[in-house]
Design a protein that fits this description.
The structure holds 2 protein chains of 2 kinds. Chain A is mainly beta. In chain A, the strands form 2 sheets. In chain A, strands 2, 4, 5, 6, 9, 10 and 11 form a 7-stranded mixed sheet that branches. A 4-stranded antiparallel sheet of chain A has the order 1-3-8-7, with no helix packed on it. Helix content of chain A is 0%, strand content 50%. The N and C termini of chain B lie far apart (38 Å). Chains A and B meet through strand 4, strand 5 and strand 10 of A and strand 4, strand 5 and strand 10 of B.
Chain lengths: 112, 112
């Protein structure tokens, strides 16, 4: 296991289209997190899972965003009807129950 | 309302000297603090952490200090090396809520 992986690394889409990102965490990690990062700012929390349960969701996350972790392993983040303001780096991280989070390389989304 | 602040957007230090990166927080519910390092086009990399019940944690050249009464933490890097040049993010974690709140980062440049 070489760490957290994310796919795709880059995504360009037209406004109004749906996009889906995938995250594969470190295999023994129970927790999985999604963050969004824009230029000049730190990662902004979106949601997190403990195993397959989604335990926390940011108020910043509109109804167009949905995340799943169906078997407690990989996770997907879907954005429906994308808007230009959704353009950002989407980061996934995983951790054991206590400890630092290990981040993936991110998916950079550009909405035209 | 930014709960975690890194007031210095950038810091420049000579190789071999000490780098001190600072972070302030406002929420008393944070019980765990972490520092991450980020290179361009990569996700943040976990560096070092400290529990709120401690005031110091050391790992090689990296030491994190926590002053709970002042709601302030700092990361000391000594001696600084050119390879330390990166963006450093401070994060505060609320174990009950299961999420981390990040500062906006400090760009450290270590000059040879």
């Amino acid at each position: 296991d070489t760490g957290v992986s994310q796919d795709p690394r880059h995504k360009i889409t037209k406004r109004g289209q749906n996009v889906t990102f995938r995250c594969d965490p470190i295999s023994e990690h129970n927790r999985l997190y999604w963050y969004r990062q824009t230029l000049g700012q730190g990662p902004e929390f979106l949601t997190y899972f403990q195993n397959e349960a989604q335990l926390e969701k940011s108020r910043l996350l509109s109804d167009r965003f949905s995340a799943e972790r169906p078997k407690g392993s990989f996770s997907t983040l879907e954005i429906q009807r994308t808007e230009q303001g959704d353009s950002a780096m989407y980061l996934c991280a995983s951790s054991e129950l206590a400890g630092g989070q290990y981040f993936g390389p991110g998916t950079r989304l550009l909405v035209l | 309302d930014q709960q975690v602040k890194q007031n210095s957007p950038s810091l420049s230090v000579q190789e071999g000297r000490i780098s001190i990166l600072n972070c302030d927080y406002t929420n008393s519910m944070f019980d765990y603090f972490l520092w991450y390092k980020k290179y361009p086009a990569e996700g943040p990399t976990f560096l070092i952490s400290i529990s709120s019940i401690k005031d110091k944690n050391e790992d090689g050249r990296f030491t994190v200090f926590l002053n709970k009464s002042a709601k302030h933490l700092s990361l000391h890097i000594v001696p600084s090396q050119p390879g330390d040049s990166a963006v450093y993010f401070c994060a505060a974690h609320n174990t009950n809520a299961g999420k981390s709140t990040f500062g906006d980062g400090t760009t450290l440049t270590v000059k040879p």
